[in-house]
TrEMBL record:
<protein>
    <recommendedName>
        <fullName>DUF4352 domain-containing protein</fullName>
    </recommendedName>
</protein>
């Protein structure tokens, strides 16, 4: 009887170890950012970032303060503020994922909310621009991700899901100048 009990106990331990191995996340999954999904117009709040995307526009050209550039552009108007601390509170992560490809916000516009410093409780408003290939404005669902760290692992990301094809496309879009909101 003892042999059966030992064999049964050993089998139970092997099954438990196998089950534990199946449910343990791999390194990539364990470091995944904490997604905060929001709709356009709603405020999303992460670890040290609060963002309201006030509008998204598609355009054939972008302009601000005498600067202009041709090409398909996606302009994101937003308000952002730090929540807990001014220390390293910079909007350093702005990406757009469409159809398995990820695009980073353009650094070309001279005045952009991308990489702007934020203050606690005092929102800044402005625009972020994405220069995209034509196919990125198609029927696929796009995910706009905004965060404080260029590498967002183990941090929060504010995410807006939308369909670029539903946006009215205009000939030229003026970016909002960055400044203190309200």
């Amino acid at each position: 009887m003892r042999r059966w009990a030992a064999a049964l106990g050993g089998t139970a331990l092997v099954v438990a170890a196998w089950g534990t191995a199946l449910v343990t996340p791999d390194d990539a999954e364990a470091e995944r950012p904490f997604s905060v999904p929001v709709e356009i117009g709603d405020r999303g709040e992460g670890r040290n970032l609060a963002v309201t995307v006030t509008g998204i526009r598609a355009a054939d050209a972008a302009t601000i303060d005498g600067w202009d550039a041709e090409g398909p552009w996606l302009i994101v108007d937003l308000e952002a503020a730090a929540v807990q601390s001014d220390l390293r509170a910079t909007l350093s992560h702005a990406t757009l994922s469409v159809d398995g490809r990820t695009y980073r916000a353009s650094e070309r516009p001279p005045d952009s909310m991308f990489r702007s410093e934020l203050a606690v409780g005092v929102p800044r408003s402005g625009s972020i621009a994405f220069e995209l290939p034509e196919e990125a404005l198609g029927d696929d669902v796009a995910v706009l991700s905004l965060g404080l760290e260029a590498d967002p692992r183990l941090d929060s990301l504010i995410e807006v899901h939308f369909e670029p094809s539903t946006l009215d496309r205009i000939e030229e879009a003026e970016l909002m100048s960055s400044g203190w909101a309200r």
